[in-house]
Amino acid sequence: MTDAAATVVRDGDTLRFGGALLREDVAALWRQLSAGAGGTSGIRALDLSGVDRIDSAGLALVSLIAARGEGVELRGVAEGRPVGFAELREAYRLGHGLAFVRD
Asked: CATH for 7-91?
């Protein structure tokens, strides 16, 4: 089975991600966001409801965008969705806002 191509669309103050956020697509997504009107400035929400699967590079991209904003809301994350998200977030000790959590 082939993963759907990674996508990102800015909808006002929300970035909507889709497909599989994997290492091979992260650089292209970052270039797209950097070249787009407004880039990641003013982002208040990240919607991952269209993401099927995420790896560590995809999580790094999403975490970096969340860190650049203030109080960015994470949407579309549910039990087991996207595949890989919960395990990676736990492995990297990231909280609900995707910031590092100290013990």
From this structure: 3.30.750.24
